[in-house]
Design brief:
This protein is α/β, with parallel strands linked by helices. It has a single domain (2-325), classed as TIM Barrel, CATH 3.20.20. 32% of the residues lie in helices and 12% in strands. It is globular and about 50 Å long.
């Protein structure tokens, strides 16, 4: 069973402008930068934690973005982006330590600013050519991974409207492009993986078109899953979507986080310590065993020393959730 953790390499995924006008904002930014945020010290500390004996995490999903110099498109890189050789060597090191290593390139128009100018060429011939080439590069860098995560969360007017250049796909075009990504990935004998919450999309149409060839990670950051019988509109608070998708025959790796709705405060920042263990127990009760392929923890923090505590908390909670899921009293 998959017990996955997400780790960012690139981080230009949340806004298309380079300047944040509010000086009170914390020292790292969700806005596109011309240099890498990832700290080598932070990265190595986190990888050491994942490779510890007894760690519950067995799969690392690396959100690559602009974090590597793609051989076919080096123009996407920024100052400090890793070479393809460096990332490949790190993938091999992590695999040798027993981790499955999975790439993630988020192609949602709300999170694809790492693509640079190509983020403004959505669904054009140039876009399809570039995307096919960087997917091929990534498959090679990751030595033929078992899965390839394409993101696809939050592509909507609501999530895109704050950008200087607002674009999002609807209807058949959205499904066409998901099929395109899948075709590129499957050429590498790799299974596509995506975030799968319908959000504001028509749920009947969404589930009718959602490909069952994918591994799906619907997410909820709720602290409790009791008395939730129907999916709600908010992506972040969806409750019973896991049971619903299981009953429909989708393969799932339900997604939780230490982010959003915090129940523990540390250094002025909140941590949601109840979500992941409760998510694991709910899915054990309600999701068909043959459909439950694992779980996915997403800390949502950059690879900087100031947010190491959140990543470490995500690792600790994965240990707790896995022990509870497997019926063990201690970790």
């Amino acid at each position: 069973m998959i017990w996955a953790m997400m780790q960012h390499l690139g981080y230009n995924m949340w806004h298309d402008e380079a300047i944040w006008k509010d000086k009170k904002r914390w020292k790292w930014s969700n806005f596109c930068l011309d240099r890498m945020l990832t700290s080598e010290v932070s990265w190595n500390l986190r990888m050491q934690r994942l490779m510890e004996k007894g760690s519950a995490v067995n799969t690392l999903v690396i959100d690559v973005g602009e974090g590597v110099v793609y051989p076919s498109h080096p123009e996407i890189a920024i100052k400090g982006s890793w070479s393809a050789e460096k990332l490949n060597a790190e993938v091999k090191r992590l695999k040798a330590a027993g981790l499955a290593v999975v790439p993630k390139l988020n192609f949602s128009t709300c999170h694809d600013f790492w693509l640079g100018d190509y983020a403004r060429m959505i669904s054009s011939p140039t876009y399809y050519k570039v995307v096919s080439e960087i997917i091929a590069d990534t498959l090679e860098i990751f030595d033929g991974p078992p899965y390839f995560h394409i993101g696809m969360d939050e592509e909507s007017f609501l999530c895109s409207s704050g950008n200087a250049y607002c674009v999002y796909r609807e209807g058949d075009l959205w499904w066409h492009d998901i099929a395109f990504y899948a075709k590129c990935i499957e050429k590498g004998n790799c299974r596509p993986w995506m975030f799968s919450n319908p959000g504001k999309r028509d749920k009947k149409d969404f589930f009718a078109n959602l490909p069952k060839s994918f591994l799906h990670s619907p997410w909820s950051y709720s602290q409790s899953f009791e008395n939730q019988t129907e999916p709600v509109d908010s992506d972040h608070l969806t409750g019973n979507i896991f049971a619903l998708m299981s009953d429909m025959g989708f393969d799932l790796a339900p997604c939780g986080s230490v982010w959003c709705g915090g129940s523990l405060t540390k250094k002025g920042m909140s941590l949601n310590v109840k979500n992941y263990p409760n998510l694991a127990l709910y899915c054990k009760r309600r999701v068909a065993p043959e459909r439950l392929k694992g779980f996915f923890m997403v800390p949502w923090c950059p690879s900087t020393t100031g947010s190491d505590y959140r990543f470490m908390a995500a690792c600790d909670l994965t240990d707790v959730a896995r022990a509870m899921f497997e019926g063990r009293d201690s970790v």
